[in-house]
Amino acid sequence: MPDPKLYLLAMAASAIASLLFVLAATAVARPASSTRLNVASILGIGLGLSVGYNVLALRLAWPPAKGLDRLLLIVVPTTIVIELIAGFPWVPRSVPWLMRICLAAAAPRVLLHGSVYLSSPASDQHLWQSAAQLVLCSFLLIGTWRLLTLLSVRSPGISIPLALAMTTQSGGLTIMMAGYIKGGAATIPLAASLAGTSVATYLMRKKTSLSGVIGIGVVGLFGVLFIGRFFGRLSTVCALTLLLAPLLLWISEVPSLRHRKPWFVGLFRLLLVAIPLAVVLVLAKQDFDLKMAPLL
Amino acid sequence: MRMRNCFFGLVRAFVVGAAVFTAGQSGFAADEYAYDLVHSSVTFKARHLDISWIHGRFNDVDGKFSIDRENPSKSTFHLVIKTDSVDTANKARDEHLRQPDYFDTKQFPTIEFKSTSTKAVEGGYEVTGDFTMHGVTKKITFVLKGGKEHQFKDIKRVAFSTELTLKRSDFGFDKNAIGPIGDEAIILIDCEGTRK
Predict the structure, then answer these.
(1) N or C: which end of chain A has fewer CB within 10 A?
(2) Interchain pair B177, A120: CB under 8 A
(3) At what angle do helices A76-86 and A94-111 cross, to 10 degrees?
(4) C-alpha to C-alpha distance for B77 and B113, rounded to whole angstroms
(5) Across the interface, which of B93, B176, B180 has its CB nearest the CB of A182?
């Protein structure tokens, strides 16, 4: 059964751990360089995730047997390593993107490993259909990742990781209302640590792209939506809406908005992303009331 | 040299003959039965809020068993339950049970039992074997009652029934999702095997 008190505690613990870690790591050398801030943010998310999952007592199996195990034990840690490497200025820019493309290509296959989608001969899908689905998912992941990273370089601000945190949490609630409680709960530490690191960078008053934080956020969001869609009851439309919602941030790049004050642009961006999220949540609640609530 | 060839030829003939005889013997002694889905059922029940029972069944089950009346220890039982076929007479609940918090049917499409040892007991067989559910395999032992045979329209039938209690938490089900539905589930198997 969902435990809102525990969820709030995990959320607070993850956010505070990430925030304090980033502040402490960057306080050592002031002013903090962009590289230091990026590395601190990535490690801060890693710490926030560990703390949050410990508070939730989320039991993961090794070797990973389920999609969620594979996401949290293979895909997310790999992203953290890639983003750490990408954060160093001496690494050629093509190398991290090559690694990101490899990860995006492998992630859907890794998440579906051992499932009926890949192994069952009784499945009504042809092999090429499954392969096409995986390729499409990879493209969606790398496309979203690339576009948000590009936006963060072009117009940096904490509204991008905050939008990702908001979307991830909305995705979690939707998955939970569709009946996959553990999958939904797994988004809490991710969303909270994204928010924690974003607030920490805001407090540092440093305008940096935070591409590492965005990378982990995009992969985490994609992963939970993918698992919710393929293993839970999350519909394709909902999953796609949630994955693509952060791309609405690009609307703020229209000339009439781009040169407004940063706080206005940031607020506008968050409100823009919140619209599809609110629609998805309302629909999910209606579906929950209809199908799941009578089962309790 | 000729004598030697003749000797080896005899030995070879003896070995082949003995193998054929042994195989024939065991083939005749153990009767192979196929699981008859029409006259069998795998049902379960679990406590709801510790005051009542929720009942359900699996509609897609397959299996086979061989019964060796002369040497019961050679009898084998194999049952495969398709988790996607869970049916509790409530579509929404069935969909919920297929999700990762419960059976996780896309990841673990089957529940399987494969016997590893069998011994005859009064009124049936005591069967020990590997029970795999939710990706976790545990050794379990239960008594299969019955074993009576019946010949009807050239089809030989044999039937068994058993009841076993399992804890879902022992098989990797998420403890947080156990909630109002009890951890323990009682599984009732009534199966009929057919042999032409």
Answers:
(1) C
(2) no
(3) 180
(4) 8
(5) B176
The span from the CA of B124 to the CA of A252, in Å, is 75
| Euclidean distance between CA atoms A242 and A235, whole angstroms | 11
Among A22-31, B54-63, B146-155, B180-189, the range scoring the smallest mean pLDDT is A22-31
Q: Whole-angstrom Cα distance, residue A12 to residue A31?
A: 28
- Angle at Cα A239 formed by Cα A234 and Cα A245, nearest 5°? 145
pTM for the structure as a whole: 0.86
Return d(Cα A263, Cα B102) in angstroms, integer.
45
Note whether A1 contacts B101, CB cutoff 8 Å. Answer: no
A292: nearest CB among B92, B135, B177: B92
| Count of CA atoms in the C-beta half-sphere (13 A) of B195 | 16
Cβ–Cβ below 8 Å for A296 and B180: yes
Q: Give the separation between CA A212 and CA A264, rounded to whole angstroms.
A: 24
> Mutation test of the interface with chain B: which of A123, A174, A231, choosing the one with the most B Cβ atoms within 10 A?
A231
Task: Write out pLDDT tens, residues B16-47.
Answer: 444 444 444 444 567 899 999 999 999 999 98
The number of C-beta contacts closer than 8 angstroms across A and B is 69
Q: Report the amino acid identity of residue B107.
A: Q
How many Å apart are CA A110 and CA A71, to the nearest integer?
8
For residue B99, which residues of chain A lie inside 8 Å, CB to CB?
178-180, 231-233
Q: Searching chain A, which residue's CA lies closest to the CA of residue B179?
A: A1
Question: Does the model's ipTM exceed the 0.90 cut?
Answer: no
The CA distance from A177 to A186, in Å, is 14
